[in-house]
Amino acid sequence: MAEKQGIHEDLHRGHEVAAGSERTFGLVFAAVFALIGLWPLTGGAPVRPWALGLTAVFMLFALVRPVALRPLNLLWHRFGMLLNSIVSPLVMGVLFFLTVTPMALIMRIAGKDPLRLRFDRQAKSYWIERHPPGPDPDSMKNQF
Q1: What predicted TM-score, i.e. pTM, was given to this entire model?
Q2: HSE-up of 29 (CA within 13 Å, CB side)?
Q3: Alpha carbons 144 and 141: distance in angstroms, whole number
Q4: CA–CA distance, 63 with 47 (Å, rounded to integer)
């Protein structure tokens, strides 16, 4: 695949995310609908019977016949993957442009070059000497 793109990297992601078990899906949704149904009690309002009915349905299927929840579980999994493909790049972009970019601009304005990327015609070498020189080379023989 990398040869077709003209690059040396293989950008194919072979890791397939598997959907959770149907039983877990049913129990989680039963808990969510139980919370929705009972939440009004915290404010003195009556319970929501439709949510408690869905709680019972999901609980029953999760415990007795979880395979019946497979279509809903797959639909929920696909919805989660869709959200991931939209939200993850947005969040990473926001983080990058609100943290990394301003810091880079501030450092550039301040004249900082932490990676020492500027070209120096006078330099004989770009090797950075360590003082103290670091660990003894013999200490690196049996690293693992």
Answers
A1: 0.62
A2: 22
A3: 9
A4: 24
